[in-house]
Amino acid sequence: MIAPSIDDLYRVEDDVEKAIKSILERDGIAPVYVQQDSEVLTSPRVEVQLQLGAATGHKHIDRQKRVWIDAWNGTLVFQIVTRRKDEKTKLDPFHSKWRAAIRRIMQGCAGSITTHDLPYHGLPKITEQGTTPKVESEDKVDISEVAFSVLVCIRPSAWP
């Protein structure tokens, strides 16, 4: 699919976050939030954030011979927030289940995200970096950040 403009191609974070949100929700993980979503965050939840890093050096040359950066290294961070385990019921309904599901889902995403979910971009490389657990006793929530190193590129067919 051809993007309407160069600016649409460079909305990398928005497009990738929304695509990952959609993929997680189809797998039964909800609610999922991305930047500029609802003001009221609920618990349990998953937050998705793409942090773009340095460009890879790969470039696209358009018909006017202009050179455009078209690939970046980045970090895709999932923050899983759940209520503390209920001492009466001993249930942890979401936290470890979602952490495992995100690992499984992301292993299957590298190179296989379709243009239906991500029309202008691809994620040809996804590698888990690790997990950072946190406990916030004041808010009575458990938090895990699961991070993935990613390569994000603009699809060659998307250039206007």
Short description:
With 160 residues, the protein is α+β, with helices and mostly antiparallel strands. It has helices at 6-9, 12-26, 95-109; strands at 32-33, 45-55, 59-61, 67-69, 71-83, 121-136, 141-154.
What is the element layout, followed by pairings?
Layout: H1 6-9, H2 12-26, E1 32-33, E2 45-55, E3 59-61, E4 67-69, E5 71-83, H3 95-109, E6 121-136, E7 141-154
Parallel strand pairs: 1-2
Antiparallel strand pairs: 2-5, 3-4, 5-7, 6-7
Protein described:
The protein is an alpha+beta fold and 160 residues long. It contains three helices and seven strands, in the order ααβββββαββ. It has helices at 6-9, 12-26, 95-109, and strands at residues 32-33, 45-55, 59-61, 67-69, 71-83, 121-136, 141-154. The strands form two sheets. A five-stranded mixed beta sheet has the order 1-2-5-7-6. The protein is elongated and about 65 Å long. The termini are close together. The model has no long low-confidence stretch (mean pLDDT 92).
CATH topology: Alpha-Beta Plaits
Q: Which descriptor suits the 3D outline?
A: elongated
Strand share of the residues?
35-45%
Domain module tally: 1
What is the CA-CA span between the terminal residues?
9 Å
> How are the strands of the largest sheet arranged?
1-2-5-7-6
Low-confidence stretches: none
Can you count the beta strands?
7
Class by helix and strand content?
alpha+beta
**Mean residue pLDDT:** 92
CATH class equals Alpha Beta
Q: Radius of gyration over alpha carbons?
A: 18 Å
Largest pleated sheet: 5 strands, mixed
In CATH, what is the homologous superfamily?
A: Phage minor tail protein U
What's the tally of helices? 3
The residue fraction in helices comes out at 10-25%
